[in-house]
Amino acid sequence: MPIENLLNNKVAIITGAGRGIGKAAAKRLAEAGASVVLAARTEAEIQAVAEEIKATGGRALAIPTDVTCVSAVDNLVTLTLRAYQHIDILINNAAVLSPVGKTWEVDPEAWRKLIDINVVGPYLCARTVLPQMLDRDDGRIINISSGAANSDTVGWSAYNASKAALNRFTTTLAAEVAHTDIVVSAIGPGVVETSMQAQLRQSNNAVYPWVERFRQYHQKGQLFLPDEPAQLILWLASKHGADQNGVVLELANEKTREQIAQDLGLPLIPNRRG
After folding, report:
1. What is the mean pLDDT of residues 103-130?
2. pTM (whole model) above 0.90
C-alpha cells in the first residue's frame, strides 16, 4: 500500500505541532491521508503548518491549545470531533526542556511547569480522547519520550523525571486498554535537530556539563532530522503498529529503522553517529 493511502479516513491530533518533530509528524500523517489537527500554544506557528499541508492537498486544522489546561484540552477534542466526528490517533509530542541546572539551583515553579507540560499534558490529552476511542474499540496513542528516561544526566532532573514518568504512563495505559484494539506506545526519537537542541547548545557548561557533547553532535552532522522520527510515528500510527501495545521504540535501534524502511518503502534512516 502506498504511503499516501496508509491513513485514509483517519483523524490525528498532534500536540506541539508548530515545529520540530510535531510539525514533521503532522506533514507525514497528512501525506498518508490523515486529517491532522495541530495543537500548540503559539497559534501563528500551527496556522503556518496547516497552510503548508493544505497547499499540498492535505487536510489540516489548527487549534491553539495549552495541554496543561483541562478546559483547553476539552475544547481541542470537542472542536476536532465537531470537524471530523472521530479521533483515531493522538500524538503526545508537546514538551519543554527547561529548566536546566542543578536540582537545588533551578526555579521550583519552572520545574513544576515542565512536569505539567511533559507529563500532565499527555495524561489530559489521552484521558479526553479515550472515551470515544473506547466506544469505537479502536485508536492509537503515541507518546514522544526520550533516552533521558533512562539517564542520570546532570542538570536534567525535571526532564529526565518527566520522560521516565511518560514511559511508565505509556506502559500502564497500554495495560489498561489491552483488552481493546487501542494501541498505546512511545518512541525515543534520539538526538534530533530541533529548536530544543539549539536551545540546549546555548547552555552554560557549568550548569550543564554535557553541553559540549551535543555541540559536537551538531558540528559533525550526527543529529537525526525531524522527518526521521516522524517516519517512526507514521509507522506506529499505521497498520504496521498494530502489535506494538506497551512498547517503547528507539529510533537509534537498527532493526527498527530497517523495519520502517521495509514497511513504508522509504530509504533507510542512517545511523548518524556511526
Report:
1. 97
2. yes
